[in-house]
Amino acid sequence: MTIKVTKIEEYPLVLNATHIAEIIGVSKRVAYEIMEKSGFPLIRIGRCKRVTKEALFKWLNEQYI
């Protein structure tokens, strides 16, 4: 199994489930489940689900406080 490590700065400003899965280290399916949680800063564009990079890291930090 190969782990792809990307610098946070290299990710786009608006992230999709694949990006979230890579950043958090979970499967894409679990990333979609996380995106549906209450309080997650989800942006819906039609059927697409996105989150800004800044909002994702703010939300992650709030989960551990």
Structure, explained:
The chain is α+β, with helices and mostly antiparallel strands and 65 residues long. Helix 1 (17-24) packs across helix 2 (28-35). The relative contact order is 0.19. Strands 1-3-2 form a 3-stranded antiparallel beta sheet. It is built from 3 helices and 3 strands.
What are the main properties of this structure?
3 helices; 15% strand; 65 residues; three-stranded antiparallel β-sheet; alpha+beta
Classify the helix fraction into a percent range.
Answer: 40-55%
Radius of gyration, in angstroms, nearest whole number:
12 Å
Summarize model confidence as the mean pLDDT.
92
Per the principal axes of the C-alpha atoms, what is the gross shape?
A: globular
Q: How far apart lie the N and C ends? A: 32 Å
The largest beta-sheet arranges its strands as 1-3-2
Major sheet:
3 strands, antiparallel
Low-confidence parts: none
State the secondary-structure class: alpha+beta
Q: What is the number of helices? A: 3
Give the amount of beta strand, in percent.
15-25%
Kindly state the number of beta strands.
3
Sketch the topology as an H/E string, one letter per element.
Answer: EHHEEH
